[in-house]
Amino acid sequence: MGMAVGESKGVVSEPNVVPLIDVLLVLIIIFMVITPRTPSGIQTLLPQPTPPDAKQAPPDTRTIVVQVLQGGQLKINQDDVRWGDLGPRLFDIFKERADKIAFVKGDENVPFEQVARAIDIMRGSGIDHVGLITAKIEAGQ
Question: Kind and range of the H or E element at 105?
């Protein structure tokens, strides 16, 4: 609260702004707390392309790649699988593994809805990290 010292001739009206500042600070804090977070999306891992001068190594048999082909066909490392069997098969593969990383690869003309469905099934079967393989990554670009 403010107080005038000395002689005053007449009525002096000075607004007290301290309560106004307190109210504004409380409102700023409230709006900062209730502001929604921005969604982060799906976390994915992208395999890094091999350098052009590197020798071709034999494919790792522990790497799991789920391919989404045209016509709704699925493959797990060259083995055909149906949509209903994808989750249980992946669960059986990864139940004994410590590293729960797999990759998904969609054909060029496959709708993303099917790729997203495969990713959802993969995450539901206990895979922690799902990476995406694209045509450019396969070509080494």
Answer: strand 101-106
Three-class DSSP category at 138: helix
pTM score of the predicted model: 0.57
Of the CA atoms within 13 Å of residue 26, those in its CB half-sphere come to 6
Residue 6, phi-psi category: left (phi > 0), alpha (psi -120 to 50), beta (remainder): left
| Extended strands (E) in 28-69 | 44-45, 65-68
Domains of the chain: 44-51+62-139 (3.30.420.270)
- Dist. CA 65–CA 130, nearest whole Å: 10
74-115 tens-digit pLDDT: 999 888 999 998 989 999 888 888 888 899 988 888 888 998
Q: Interior CA angle at 100 toward 95 and 103, to 5°?
A: 120
- Provide the β-strand partners of residue 79: 76
**Tens-place pLDDT, residues 32-66:** 888 777 666 767 666 666 667 666 555 556 788 89
